[in-house]
C-alpha cells in the first residue's frame, strides 16, 4: 500500500471519511466494553510537539497504547529539532525507526516538508493553518448526536484560524454549509483554506446572523498558539464575538454547541453556553481519541474489519 499522509482535511475523500466514522464508532464501542483490540501491536507512533497540548497528546498516546502499540514523545526543547537539525534529516531518521508520526507545529510548510521526506505516514496534530484531527472528531460527534452532517449549517463565530480553515475544507468535501462570522481583519484566507466551492460557506458581518437557523454553533480561542503577541489587540477586536445564550437562541432549537478546547469562559463563549444543555464539548474531546484510533488503523492497515 502506498503511504498516505493526513496533513489537511482534504487529504481524504468523502468515501474514506464515511469509512473512518464507521470504524470510529466500532472502535469506541470496543473501548466502552473493555474489549481488547490490538491491531497495532509492535507499531510505534512518534509524536512531535512544537506547541503545547493536553487533548492531542493524551488522545494519541492513550489511543496508541489501547491498540497495542507504543509512543515516543518529542518536543522542540528536548530534541535536536530545537537545535536547528534540518527538518528533512529529522524526517528521514525518525521514519526509519517508527511506523507513524504525528506533528504539532507552526507553519503548514514545515509538516509538508517533513512528510515529503518521511517513509511513514505523517498526521497533522495542528498547524497554524489546519487542525484536521479536531474536525474529524467534531463531525463524528455531530453524527453521533444528530445523524448525517450533509445539508446542515455550521455557524463559525470568531477567528478565521486553523479550525475555521478546516471546517471550510470539510464542508466542501462532505456537503454542508459553514456560516462564517469573523471580526474585520481576522477573516478566513480563502487561498489557505483552499475551498473549491463557493456554495459551501457564507460570510456574515453579525455573528447573530451567522447563528440564525444553524444546526451547530462553534467557536475557538480569540488568540491561537503562536499569536500571543496580538492578545490585547485581539481582545478588543473580538469583544462582540462571544457565543452567548442570545446566539444559541436564534440557532435551531436542537442546535449543538462545540469548542475544540481549551476554552475561556467570558471571552469566546459564555459559561452558560459551554456548560449548558446544548454543549457537547466533553464528548467532542473524548472523541478525539476514538477517531484518531480509526485514522491510525486506516493509515497503517487500510480497511480492516473486526
Ligand atoms: N483541541 C486540542 O487540540 O487540544 P490540545 O491543544 O489540548 O491538544
Ligand atoms: N486555534 C487554537 C486551537 C487549539 C487547540 C490554536 O491553534 O491554538
Question: In words, what does this structure look like?
Answer:
This protein is an alpha/beta fold. It folds into two domains: 9-130 and 286-301, 3-Layer(aba) Sandwich (Rossmann fold); 134-284, Rossmann fold. It contains twelve helices and nine strands. The protein has helices at 14-32, 55-66, 87-95, 108-116, 132-146, 162-174, 190-193, 207-211, 231-237, 245-250, 271-274, 281-301; strands at residues 44-49, 70-75, 100-104, 122-124, 153-157, 177-181, 201-203, 216-219, 256-259. The strands form two sheets. It has a five-stranded parallel beta sheet. Strands 2-1-3-4 form a four-stranded parallel beta sheet, sandwiched between helices. α7 (190-193) links the parallel β6 and β7 (201-203). The longest helix has 21 residues, at 281-301. The protein is globular and about 50 Å long. The mean pLDDT is 97. The structure holds phosphoric acid mono(formamide)ester and norvaline. Phosphoric acid mono(formamide)ester binds at residues 53-56, 126, 134, 260-261. Residues 4-144 form the Aspartate/ornithine carbamoyltransferase carbamoyl-P binding domain. One of its GO terms (molecular function) is amino acid binding. Carbamoyl phosphate binds at residues 53-56, 80, 104, 131-134, 260-261, 288. It catalyses: carbamoyl phosphate + L-ornithine = L-citrulline + phosphate + H(+). Residues 151-299 form the Aspartate/ornithine carbamoyltransferase Asp/Orn-binding domain.
Amino acid at each position: 500500500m502506498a503511504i498516505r499522509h493526513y496533513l489537511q482535511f482534504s487529504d481524504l475523500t468523502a468515501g474514506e471519511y464515511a469509512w473512518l466514522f464507521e470504524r470510529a464508532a466500532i472502535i469506541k464501542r470496543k473501548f466502552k466494553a473493555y474489549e481488547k483490540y490490538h491491531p497495532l501491536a509492535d507499531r510505534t507512533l512518534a509524536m512531535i510537539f512544537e506547541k503545547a497540548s493536553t487533548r492531542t497528546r493524551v488522545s494519541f498516546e492513550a489511543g496508541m497504547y489501547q491498540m497495542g502499540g507504543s509512543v515516543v514523545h518529542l518536543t522542540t526543547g528536548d530534541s535536536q529539532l530545537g537545535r536547528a537539525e534540518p527538518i528533512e534529516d529529522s524526517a528521514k531518521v525518525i521514519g526509519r525507526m517508527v511506523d507513524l508520526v504525528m506533528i504539532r507545529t507552526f507553519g503548514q510548510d514545515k509538516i509538508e516538508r517533513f512528510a515529503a521526506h518521511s517513509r511513514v505516514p505523517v498526521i497533522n496534530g495542528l498547524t497554524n493553518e489546519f487542525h484536521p484531527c479536531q474536525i474529524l472528531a467534531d463531525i463524528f460527534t455531530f453524527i453521533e448526536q444528530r445523524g448525517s452532517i450533509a445539508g446542515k449549517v455550521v455557524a463559525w463565530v470568531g477567528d478565521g484560524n486553523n479550525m475555521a480553515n478546516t471546517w471550510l475544507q470539510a464542508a466542501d468535501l462532505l456537503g454542508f454549509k459553514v456560516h462564517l462570522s469573523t471580526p474585520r481583519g481576522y477573516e478566513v484566507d480563502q487561498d489557505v483554506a483552499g475551498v473549491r466551492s463557493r456554495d459551501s460557506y457564507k460570510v456574515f458581518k453579525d455573528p447573530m446572523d451567522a447563528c440564525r437557523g444553524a444546526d451547530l454553533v462553534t467557536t475557538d480561542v480569540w488568540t491561537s498558539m503562536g499569536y500571543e503577541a496580538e492578545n490585547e489587540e485581539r481582545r478588543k477586536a473580538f469583544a462582540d464575538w462571544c457565543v452567548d445564550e442570545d446566539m444559541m437562541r436564534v440557532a435551531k432549537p436542537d442546535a449543538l454547541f462545540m469548542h475544540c478546547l481549551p476554552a475561556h469562559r467570558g471571552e469566546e463563549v459564555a459559561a452558560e453556553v459551554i456548560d449548558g444543555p446544548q454543549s457537547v464539548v466533553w464528548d467532542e474531546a473524548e472523541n478525539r481519541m476514538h477517531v484518531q484510533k480509526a485514522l491510525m488503523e486506516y493509515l497503517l492497515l487500510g480497511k480492516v474489519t473486526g
